[in-house]
Amino acid sequence: MDNVRTTDAPDPAAAGLLVGKVALVTGAGRGIGAAAARLFAREGARVLLAARTRGQLEAVSEEIRAAGGTAEYAVCDLAVAADVRAAVERAVDLYGRLDVAFNNAALSVPPAPVDQVPERDLDELYTVNLKGTWLAVSAEVAAIRATAGTGAIVNNSSVGSLMGNPALPAYAAMKRAVNSLTESAAIAYGPEGIRVNAIAPGTTLTEMVRAWNDHSPGVVAQLNARTPLRRAADPDEIAQAAAWLLSERASYVTGTVLPVDGGMQA
């Protein structure tokens, strides 16, 4: 009967989904990551933002603090194991613990079928999107275990990982591997009370998607036509799903890859 929840404890989500939590967000300088950092702070978390671009991190952190939230940052390249560990350690050094993490950082490459994807693009996608997520999960589990004891991790995948993706085959393959990593970690760390889930966003109005549309004009309109809600998501809508999965309101959810796709997979 390990990790049995009781129902008489106060619900911290009544005041905010992440009140009292320390949260790490990777890829937090823009797009979904920046939206998540802002949201997590509004929901009561103390946030450590991590990304490669200092100027973006400074801007988002200052915005959060101006709104009354708590935020610091660490410049971090997910391709560098020492950077990943240092970002996690900075969160613990600043705030004394780590409770939750959103592994959002990723990169994309120009669309191309399998036989036309340059090997260097495949290697770069592996290093950041899969290996970087692996390194982050490993460091975060160790920090949660050593400080908060229990907690939650959400990895950002893609709806493109749930089906064949001839336009972005290498990107989709790495994201499908992230799904497998998520499920494996959920099984491994569930007995300790550490939940691990993923979200699979559909078309979202980020710089990455806009760049894809610039390269392949009309692709966003085509994707919207395949989406029952007939529109793309705002980054904040994706961040909302991550916040819920990290919160105590999702206390019995682990090992899940949650589509947040406007019904594209329906």
Describe the overall structure.
The protein has 266 residues and is α/β, with parallel strands linked by helices. It has helices spanning 31-42, 54-66, 81-95, 119-146, 169-189, 207-215, 219-225, 235-246, and strands at residues 22-26, 46-51, 70-75, 100-103, 151-156, 194-201, 257-260. The chain is globular, with a radius of gyration of 18 Å. Residues 1-13 have low confidence and may be disordered.
Total helix count?
A: 8
Number of domains: 1
Distance between the termini: 37 Å
Sheet having the most strands: 7 strands, parallel
Placed side by side, the strands forming the largest sheet appear as: 3-2-1-4-5-6-7
Percent range of helical residues: 40-55%
Helix-strand topology string: EHEHEHEHEHEHHHE
Please give the number of β-strands: 7
State mean pLDDT (0 to 100 scale): 92
Name given to the CATH homologous superfamily: NAD(P)-binding Rossmann-like Domain
CATH level-3 fold name = Rossmann fold
Low-confidence stretches: 1-13
Radius of gyration, taken over Cα atoms and rounded to an integer in Å: 18 Å
Q: What best-fitting shape do the alpha-carbon axes yield?
A: globular
CATH A-level architecture: 3-Layer(aba) Sandwich
Strand content: 5-15%
The CATH class assignment is: Alpha Beta
Please identify the structural class as seen in this structure.
alpha/beta
Outline of this structure?
With 266 residues, the protein is of the alpha/beta class.
What's the structural blueprint in terms of helices and strands?
Layout: E1 22-26, H1 31-42, E2 46-51, H2 54-66, E3 70-75, H3 81-95, E4 100-103, H4 119-146, E5 151-156, H5 169-189, E6 194-201, H6 207-215, H7 219-225, H8 235-246, E7 257-260
Parallel strand pairs: 1-2, 1-4, 2-3, 4-5, 5-6, 6-7
Helix pairs in contact: 1-2, 1-8, 3-4, 4-5
